[in-house]
Amino acid sequence: MNEKKTTKKGSYFLLSPATKDKIQTIADEKHLSQADVITETIDHYYADRDEKYVVFKNMISDLMDEKLATIQDKLHRIQVTGNVVDRDTKILLEFMNHYYLINEFKDLITTEKYKTNGMQQAEDLIQKRIHKHRQKKLDYEKRKAQKQQESEA
């Protein structure tokens, strides 16, 4: 052993005859005392335990990184979409402001007061587009999940 000499304390353990034979066999093979074999075995156990912990920690870290990358990609898409919607909304507000200014309107008639046929058609069209887009997304995700299951099998 390459350890510094330390003060040892005597201990008394009751061991099975098979365990005592194994300790003696290891001691004979390695030319060590039985106490040194027990010490070396315990040191090996702790080193192995620490190594397993590091491997386990790395596996969890890799798995989390993989999942985080997926989440970050989706979050980025949401941010881009939000930016586009925000930009388009601001453009529409500028157009509406200009329209009201040029036509010198005094009041605003909201859709709660009166909804034109054109407005109802526009709402219906947008609802259909949203539904169609949602259905396409669900179909894509279903195909993607099937491909992933096939590749795992």
Model description:
- The protein is mainly alpha-helical and 153 residues long.
- The chain has a domain at 109-153.
- Helices cover 78% and strands 0% of the residues.
- It contains three helices and no strands.
- It has helices spanning 17-30, 34-103, 117-152.
- The chain is rod-shaped, with a radius of gyration of 37 Å.
- The two termini are 49 Å apart.
- The mean pLDDT is 88.
What is the straight-line distance between the termini? 49 Å
Radius of gyration: 37 Å
How many strands appear in the DSSP assignment? 0
Helix vs. strand class: mainly alpha
Largest sheet: none
Report the order of strands and helices: HHH
Identify the overall geometry.
rod-shaped
Helix content: over 70%
Strand content: under 5%
Mean pLDDT: 88
Q: What's the topology here?
A:
Layout: H1 17-30, H2 34-103, H3 117-152
Helix pairs in contact: 1-2
Brief synopsis:
With 153 residues, the chain is mainly α.
Question: What characteristics describe this protein?
Answer:
single chain; about 150 residues; mainly alpha; about 80% helix
